[in-house]
Write a structure and sequence with these properties.
53% of the residues lie in helices and 0% in strands. By secondary structure, it is mostly helical. α2 (41-54) packs across α3 (58-73). It has helices at residues 3-11, 41-54, 58-73.
Length: 74
């Protein structure tokens, strides 16, 4: 598809998703970065209990709790 056609279809509100290769699409600021954090044993135990209660992984609990706190300060 030519650029002009693509732009015109976009401007007209047409669905242009079939013209895009979304397999390589990324959200800015959403790149994954690994961090290591040391927790005391009692905290790991509490995280594990909550993870079992929710039926998710410890990492999921940590991510959700940190994300909630980050929204509060953003």
């Amino acid at each position: 598809m030519k650029t002009k056609t693509f732009d015109d279809r976009f401007d007209d509100g047409d669905d242009i998703s079939e013209a895009l290769d979304l397999t390589q699409a990324r959200r800015p600021g959403e790149e994954i970065r690994r961090v290591n954090v040391d927790f005391p044993a009692w905290m790991v135990g509490a995280l594990d209990r909550e993870a079992r209660r929710l039926g998710v992984t410890r990492q999921s609990v940590i991510k959700v709790w940190i994300a909630e706190k980050c929204k509060d300060v953003a």
